Amino acid sequence: MNKTFCLITGIAPDKIEKGLISAEKHMQKDTAQMEVYLQFIGHSMLSRRVSEITESFWRDPQDPETALTELPEDLLRRQGRVVIIQSFIKEHVFAIMRGIKSASSRPQDIIFAMVTDTAASWTLEEYLKHLKTEHEYMKTHTPDQDPDMKKLQ
What is the pLDDT of residue 147? Predict the structure, then answer.
């Protein structure tokens, strides 16, 4: 499967579009072609489990062009800049991250995350709060300050 799903908040649609164009350029020639589906996060999604959102999306994926032009009426704002990615191809994840970062004036402020088994069991609101806390922690701590973190070589 070469489809990738991204849940997004806090990043303008034009930046996402530029980032995805750039992501295509970051792809290696021998990697499966990337099909990216997007969903901007609305307030009504916050109480739903991440697994519900992803499963619902895959039952009826929204055309990427539509996702960029028809934003949810209850669009989540001012909750940070987050891209949650669900993909089975690691190279797609890295290409999307590099592409979106290259289209941003403040790439260090973007939180990128994957849908893990743990994340799938949380509500989207719980996951977003966890990601924000983790991101703030990582900005102020290095592995040498924390014995539980792996040392960088």
Answer: 64
Select the more confidently predicted residue: 32 or 72: 72
How far apart are the C-alpha atoms of 120 and 115, rounded to whole Å?
Answer: 6
C-alpha span between 86 and 55 (Å, rounded)? 11
In this structure, are residues 16 and 9 in contact, taking their beta carbons and an 8 Å threshold? Answer: no
Q: Are strands 81-86 and 3-9 parallel, antiparallel or unpaired?
A: antiparallel
Residue 51, CA atoms < 13 Å, CB-side half-sphere: 7
- Residue 129, token pair as written in the block: 């709060």
Q: At what angle do helices 90-102 and 13-26 cross, to 10 degrees?
A: 130
How far from chain centre, in Å, is Cα 84? 2
Encode pLDDT of 44-90 as tens digits: 899 999 999 999 988 888 777 778 777 777 777 767 899 999 998 88
3-143 CATH fold: Macrophage Migration Inhibitory Factor (3.30.429)
